[in-house]
Amino acid sequence: MSQESCKALLTLSNLIGAYSEQGQLGSSGWTRTNNPPVNSRLLCRLSYRGRRTDYKRRSGGASRKRPCWSFAARYNGSMTSQPTNLVTAKTGLFERRAVRITMLLLAALVVGLWLAFTPSGLLGKADAVAFAVCHRIDVRSFHIGERAMPLCARCTGMHLGALVTTLFFLLRGRGRAGMYPSRAVAVTLGLFALVWAIDGVNSYATLFPGAPHLYEPNNLLRLTTGMLLGVGLGTIVYATFNQSVWRSWDSEPALRSFVDLAVLLTIEAVVILLVLSENALLLYPLAVVGSLAVLGVLTAVYTVMILLFLKRENQASSWRELAFPLLGGFTITILQIGLINLGRYVLTGSWSGIGI
Q: By the number of CB atoms within 10 A of the CB, which of 51, 97, 112, 326 ranks highest?
């Protein structure tokens, strides 16, 4: 054994003896000395039996020696940085938990206040949702017995149509389809929107006695044109949501062809017949589902807006990872509905629709 190796082993034994006397042997803080230069020299000598020589060719053919303590110094540096990284990780975890707890408390507060100050009962809450997005004129609504449905005929068709469209895409296995329809299908959906707008303007004109209008409106036309718009609304919101939130979304349209559109319109026609039956056993769940569709559409829109604002789009891989953005979107939805409820109630002093 060389003289340098003997000196290194002797130094190491002295250090171990000193630390053992102090009762610190085996402690995680004393696996090496607290003197980086000593660490470097000991590690170098024990590992390489002296000075490590690296021969690196230069342009002139000369060689350059690099002492082995450069490797040991890097080793010491990487080890001493671990506590800092651990503290940073713990701080980030604490901040994320604090934000999530704050979001939960805020959501509970907003939803709790809205539930407390809106009409009682399931239909009462449905009325409160509709109160924020619909005029709720009695003669332009379908009725459950003597009670008007929460949404007017046009809004009922629009939101039920969007919900049916979404369910259709899911049942066809297009859960993450994020492309918009082909140009021909998109133009057709645009025509649906145009028909909805024409019927809406014509119906609005009849509110003013003597005002000219194209034809006499009725609730069947309002419901049907609302359903047609709902197909387009559901298709656009569905594709926009998928291409904005998912890390891996399918680059195919949810509404692929006119065959899909024909099947979807057939289902929508069945829903129209259910509403026209005016059977209370059918209209009651449809009334509640229609208001839930309002919440669903607004929540999806606000969730996308939150992710875009935070620059966190296209990062979710599962619904679990999307839970808190969805909670934020739902909270904003309830907050918006609550503020509109408050303003409209202050102005009218009633939860009823506009009387004409």
A: 326
**Whether residue 112 sits in one domain with residue 36:** no
Q: Are residues 188 and 270 in the same domain?
A: yes
Tokens of 334: 């309830």
Same domain for 188 and 250, yes or no, is yes
Dihedral angle sign, alpha carbons of residues 180, 182, 187, 188 = negative
Q: How much of the chain, in percent, has pLDDT values that exceed 90?
A: 65
Is 340 part of a structural domain of the chain? yes
β-pair partners for 272: none
Q: Mean pLDDT score of the chain, rounded to an integer?
A: 83
Does 216 lie in the same domain as 150?
A: yes
Strands (E), 180-271: 250-253
pLDDT for residue 63: 45
CA-CA distances (angstroms) from residue 3 to 9, 13, 44, 54, 72?
10, 16, 15, 22, 21
Residues 107 and 173 in one domain: no
Q: Tokens for 343, please give them.
A: 């303003």
188 by Cβ neighbours in 10 Å (0-12 / 13-18 / 19+) ranks as: middle
Structural domain count, the chain? 3
| Same domain (yes/no): 41, 156 | no
285: nearest Cα among 177, 197, 160, 114: 160
Which whole number is the average pLDDT over 45-68?
46
* Amino acid identity, position 208: F
The parent domain of residue 182 ranges over: 118-348
144 lies in some domain: yes
Across 80-106, average pLDDT: 73
pTM of the model: 0.73
Residues 157 and 13 in one domain: no
Expressed in percent and rounded to 5, the helix, strand and coil fractions of the chain are: 65, 5, 30
Task: Using pLDDT thresholds of 50, 70 and 90, give the confidence band for residue 340.
Answer: very high
| pLDDT for residue 352 | 81
Nearest-10 Cα torsion for 70, 73, 79, 85: -90
- The mean per-residue pLDDT over the stretch 19-39 comes to 49
Task: Name the most confidently modeled range: 3-7, 16-20, 277-281.
Answer: 277-281
CA gap 122, 142 in Å, rounded: 18
